[in-house]
Design goal:
Organism: Niabella pedocola
InterPro entries: Secre_tail (IPR026444)
Protein name: T9SS type A sorting domain-containing protein
Shape: globular
Number of strands: 8
Radius of gyration: 18 Å
Number of helices: 2
Pfam families: Por_Secre_tail
Domain Secretion system C-terminal sorting: 85-144
Largest sheet: 8 strands, mixed
Strand content: over 45%
Mean pLDDT: 76
Low-confidence stretches: 15-22
Structural class: alpha+beta
Distance between the termini: 59 Å
Helix content: 10-25%
Oligomer: single chain
Length: 150
């Protein structure tokens, strides 16, 4: 009886992690907050969802749940770091040689970056303050995210 209860509890934890881990729609960006087991905020990063999250292996999901919990909130605007003009974005699914275009409000291309991997660092130090847009096509997913340089 205890084994059944334990398996039911573990199954509910896994479903909770998988169901709650992606609250940002595919093609959108947001903030991901990660907390340790004590509830302390351990990291905050911008995340773009360029694919559906694949199911976790049961052992990985249980181990992840023991270490930390994650919360995601959709954002309409990504902000650069105020002094450096840098912004870092994490992608849910690694990209393979994808072109990331940064354009200004008039549609003029400011930068083109080739991205392979799941992390993108954009340096807008050389451009004036204002609104820019990150444009990326990843498979069937298009991401158009506003970036504001402070």
């Amino acid at each position: 009886m205890r084994n059944k209860q334990f398996l039911l509890l573990v199954g509910m934890m896994i479903l909770g992690i998988i169901g709650y881990s992606q609250t940002i729609p595919v093609g959108s960006c947001g903030l991901q907050y990660t907390y340790d087991a004590s509830g302390n905020l351990t990291s905050r990063q911008y995340v773009c969802v360029n694919a559906r999250i694949k199911s976790y292996k049961k052992a990985d999901a249980v181990e992840y749940a023991k270490k930390s919990s994650t919360e995601m909130q959709k954002v309409d605007v990504v902000y650069t770091q105020s002094k450096s003009g840098l912004v870092s974005i994490q992608f849910i699914s690694p990209l393979k040689n994808n072109a990331v275009r940064i354009v200004d409000a008039a549609g003029k291309e400011v930068q083109t970056l080739m991205l392979t991997g799941d992390k993108l660092k954009i340096n807008l130090a050389q451009v004036p303050k204002g609104s820019y847009y990150m444009r990326l096509k990843s498979g069937a997913v298009n991401i158009n995210q506003e970036i504001v340089k402070l």
